[in-house]
Amino acid sequence: MQVILAPWGADDLEVLRRANTAELTQFLGGPEPEAALAQRHAEYLAGESMFRVVNDGVTAGYAGWWEQEHEGAPAYEVGCVIEPAWQGRGVASAALAEVVRRAVASGDGRPIVGYAHVGNEASHALCRRVGFELEGTGMFPGDDGGAPIEVAVWVIRP
C-alpha cells in the first residue's frame, strides 16, 4: 500500500461528490446540496492544505487541515474522509498521520485538533492510532441551523 496526498485540483469536485453520501456524512449532518459542495471545492482550491488521498494510484478520499480556534487560541483542525471501498485497510491512518505531520511541520507550534461525533467509533479509533489524546467533549452548531452535534475533542500538542 502506498498512500500519498496529492494537491487539491480543479477536477477534484468529483471527490467531494463521491463522499457526499448518507453513509459518509451520517456523523456530519447528512449530505450537502450541490451548491455547498461547489463552495467547499472553491475554498479547497484557494488554500494549500487540502489534499486528495491516493492509494496505489487510485483516489480513495480526501484529507487536510485548516485554521481553527481551540480554547481561545489558534489551532489546526484536521479532517479525513475515506471512501468505503478503502476503509479498514490503513488508508485513513496513513493519510491522517501525513496531514498531522505536515501541519506540525508548518512550524508555528499550534495544537492539532480533531473533532469526531461522540458516536463515531471509527473516527475515535483513528484518532487514537494517529496519536491524538482525548481531551473531552464539546458541542458544534448544526449545519443550517440544525441541532447541535456533540463531539469528542482529540488533540495533539506539538
From TrEMBL:
InterPro entries: Acyl_CoA_acyltransferase (IPR016181), GNAT_dom (IPR000182), N-acetyltransferase (IPR051531). Pfam families: Acetyltransf_3. Residues 3-158 form the N-acetyltransferase domain. Gene3D superfamilies: 3.40.630.30. It comes from Microbacterium gallinarum. It comes from the Bacteria. Belongs to the acetyltransferase family. RimJ subfamily. This is GNAT family N-acetyltransferase. PANTHER family: [RIBOSOMAL PROTEIN US5]-ALANINE N-ACETYLTRANSFERASE, GNAT FAMILY, PUTATIVE (AFU_ORTHOLOGUE AFUA_3G00765)-RELATED-RELATED. Keywords: Acyltransferase, Transferase. CDD domains: NAT_SF (cd04301).
